[in-house]
Amino acid sequence: TLDEIGKMTLPESVFAGGIQRIIQRRLDHIPVWSHEMLQAAAVYGRQLDLEILRLLYPDIDIERWLLVCSEASVIDIVDEQWRFAHDRLRDALIETLETNDRQQMHRRIAEVIEQHYSVANHASILAHHWNLAGNYAKECHYLTLAGQQALYSGVYKEAITCLDRAMMLLEHFGGHSNLQRERIRLKQIQGEANLGLGAYDV
Question: 118, 12, 31: which is closest to 71 by C-alpha?
């Protein structure tokens, strides 16, 4: 009742429902022709990579697309970097994708990065997208590369995190003739990272 205003907080369901309506209202202003590209941008991350979007959708006028999405307050620009106006908008777009479609979108993004970028500079990003695409062999490969880069940069904890996951994936999804060699190589890199942290007993 009106008497309760200021004395109690809104129920979570009312708050969540109001937010959802705002999100849906904004997304309803996005024309059909631009929707898939917006989903791909959401799958990629909070920050938009316009070059990757151009490569994924060469037939779409990206300047027009940016204008449409920004006028709907779905994306905005901060410090000259386009991004989603809110994480909930991005989450809502991702949820509109079926699991298989979402995996295929991650695969397409990873393939574009592999084809047009230096994989050495995008190892962590590639590991992330191949993980969500369900390709654990490729995730293992890029995690190993990311772990090596972190090791050489002296970021030992990050290196160990990457390498531990890579070893787990290798043990579960390796299954190739060079498995033993890969295991030895990975353990050697892990040892160097633990040595850098002073973890001599690991």
Answer: 31
Residues forming a β-bridge with 82: 77
Q: What is the pTM of this model?
A: 0.81
Rounded Cα distance between 87 and 89, Å, is 5
Tokens 């129920």 -> residue: 11
- List, for residues 143-191, the tens digit of each pLDDT value: 999 999 999 888 888 999 999 999 899 888 765 557 778 888 888 888 8
Query: For the segment 16-52, what is each residue's pLDDT rounded down to a tens digit?
Result: 455 677 788 888 888 999 999 999 999 999 999 999 9
Task: Give the integer Cα–Cα distance in Å for 8 and 87.
Answer: 27
CA distance to 127, 153, 182, per residue, from 194 (Å): 22, 14, 18
Angle (CA) 48-82-138 rounded to 5° is 15
Dihedral angle, C-alpha 74, 77, 81, 84, nearest 10 °: -20
d(CA 202, CA 200): 6
